[in-house]
Structures are given as C-alpha cells and as structure tokens.
Design goal:
alpha/beta; single chain
Length: 347
C-alpha cells in the first residue's frame, strides 16, 4: 500500500482541491478499491454551486467503480482483483427498513461521497455491502454508470412498469438518459423531452422511440400526446426550480403514474391539484435504490449496463485526470461544453 494517495476534497471555502492523504487498510466488513472511474452527479453540482452545504474535507464521488485491492475480515463476496461497482448508500443495517431491503429510507442513511469519503481518490474504502461485482466484459467507466441507472430501475419497479406501456421522460441529463435504457430493459416505449441538441442526439442514440424538443413544436406534440392518452408513466428527472413536475402531470393519461426522480432545490413545486383529482393520477416519489423482491436495484442496473455497454459508455462525454478535478467540475457545470456525464480517472 502506498504511503500517500491523491484525492479530491471539499476545501474550507467549499471549492474542489487536490490533497494527499494516508490510506488505511480496510477494517472488518470493509473493501478497499483502486478507483478506475468516478462520475460527477447532478447532486455533486448542487454542492459545487452552493445550493446544498458540502462538508469540508470530504472526498466527493458516489458514482464510481474500480478493482478491489484489499478486503477486511469477514468479507466473502468479493476478493482482490475483482472489478466492483459501488452502491453508495450507508445504513444502520438493523432497523426494520434495512431488514426489509428498504435501506434507502433508513433513519441513519447517508451517502458515500457526501457523509463519508467517496470515489474521487486513488484509493477508496467502503462498507463491503456497497460493493457489487461487475458482470464480465465491463470496465470501471461503464460500471460507474450503474449508480444513476439504478435510480430509474428502482423507480420503474415502484410503478410496476410493463412492457406494453409508454414512458415519457422529462429531462435528458444523466438520470433521464440512463432512464431510457432502464425503460427499454422493461420492454417499454420511451419518449424523451430534451432541451439541448446534444441531449436530443443522445436520446435518439440510446433508442428513444421519439424525442421532443423544448420548443413550440414540442409543446404542441405534448398536447397531442395528452389528447391521445398515450403516456402511461411520466418521469420527472430535472428537479431544481422549474415547472417540470407540472409538465409531467399535463402529459400523462388519466389513471397514469408520475414518478418524481429530480432533486428540487425549492421546498415546493408547481402542480395542478384539481387535475390530479379529476384524472386520479398517481404521484410516486422515488429516491435512489433499494433491494426489491430480494435483488438489489443496483445489481439489476449493472446487468442493464452490461446489456447496453456501448450505448451506456457513450454518455461519458468528458474525462479528466484526478489532478484536474476542478476543471472537471467546471465542465460539468457549464452546459455550453455539451457535457452529459463527466468522469474523473484516479487510476
């Protein structure tokens, strides 16, 4: 083990800085890995922009994968050399939610990369239950994409998406675009509302049945889809401060389902409550992932990534060395760069 490793961290003034730290051997029930690729998430950008309070000294990164370098006592399911993806949820492991597989709503829940050091480091040490062996044929970059994709796997499990149904995805960031693959894996048709041309191109490339622009023609098409009662499930993936939840509500058919996946920075969002009642629309909140029917959403997401590996990897538009982490965040935060998913390569 090296005497020091390089890592990114939040500075005291909540900027990204590069530092050297002394690695420790993994303790009982822990896994250490050499991080091959770590993605910058939209929630990371909320911290970067100051919309959420980052923790000084914490190494960010919860979308990551790499090769196991050491395992602590009691770890049996992975071994040195295995490529693993990290399902970064921290939990108590003892409460009724954890025991039932709903550890994502544990009262002591946290996230690797927010509450504990994450993957933007040469070495990362995580609880062993967060490490999932990647399917054969994947590399670290592709395996790291399982984390955002798992959010849609979980959401579609919650609304029991069926193969004959049509999904309308509002937004074409990483969550929206990986959601295309998750919906396709269910056999569903997918229509995507995408604002930027490079996002529209990506949605087409990933296999969306139709892509609607954020323009007058797109608005007219959404009205037509609503009149045709064509949309069974609408998925809001944008969050922030916009009216995207209202957009999802307007397009979905009567008795349809709306899934809220986006992270809103406002405490309230616009909806039409009378329309909810008249149409008997179901609104489902969905946050991260869990273990459904005995199998982790994250494990399913790894399989979906493996099935669509080339398409999934095409979402990574920019790659940076760890020493250039600050430039990576600047690129991810600036839509003029046409970035979709920015990855940092510690090793």
């Amino acid at each position: 083990m090296p005497a020091t490793v390089t890592a990114a961290r939040w500075s005291d003034d909540l900027d990204i800085e590069i530092t050297a730290k002394t690695p420790a051997a993994p303790g009982p029930g822990q896994v250490q890995l050499a991080v091959g690729s770590a993605g910058i998430c939209g929630s990371d950008l909320h911290f970067y922009r100051g919309q959420f309070p980052a923790r000084p000294g914490i190494t960010p990164g919860h979308e990551f994968a790499g090769n196991v370098t050491a395992v602590g006592a009691g770890v049996k399911h992975v071994r040195e050399g295995d490529l693993v993806g990290i399902e970064p949820l921290l939990r108590c492991g003892l409460c009724p939610f954890c025991v039932s597989g709903d550890y994502h709503v544990c009262g002591e829940r946290g996230l690797v990369g927010e509450n504990a050091d994450g993957g933007m480091s040469e070495l990362a040490t995580v609880p062993a239950e967060t490490a999932f062996k990647a399917p054969r044929g994947l590399d670290a970059e592709a395996a790291a994409l399982a984390e955002p994709l798992a959010c849609s796997v979980h959401a579609f499990n919650k609304v029991k998406l069926r193969g004959h149904e049509t999904v309308f995805i509002v937004g074409a960031g990483t969550i929206g675009l990986t959601g295309v693959l998750a919906a396709r894996a269910c056999g569903a048709k997918v229509i995507v509302l995408a604002r930027h041309p490079h996002q529209q191109d990506a949605a087409h490339r990933l296999g969306a049945t139709e892509v609607v622009g954020d323009d007058e023609a797109g608005f007219e098409r959404m009205k037509e889809l609503a009149r045709l009662q064509a949309i069974d499930v609408a998925v809001e993936t944008v969050g922030g401060t916009g009216d995207t939840l209202l957009t999802a509500q307007r397009v979905v058919r009567p008795k349809g389902r709306i899934v809220l996946l986006g992270v809103f920075t406002n405490p309230t969002a616009n909806i039409n409550p009378l329309l909810f009642a008249l149409r008997e629309t179901e609104l489902v909140g969905s946050m991260t992932y869990a273990t459904t029917d005995g199998r982790a959403d994250y494990a399913i997401a790894l399989d979906v990534v493996a099935d669509y590996a080339g398409l999934a990897r095409s979402l990574v538009t920019h790659r940076f060395a760890l020493d250039d982490a600050k430039s990576a965040f600047e690129t991810a935060a600036d839509k003029s760069t046409r970035s979709i998913k920015v990855h940092i390569k510690p090793n």
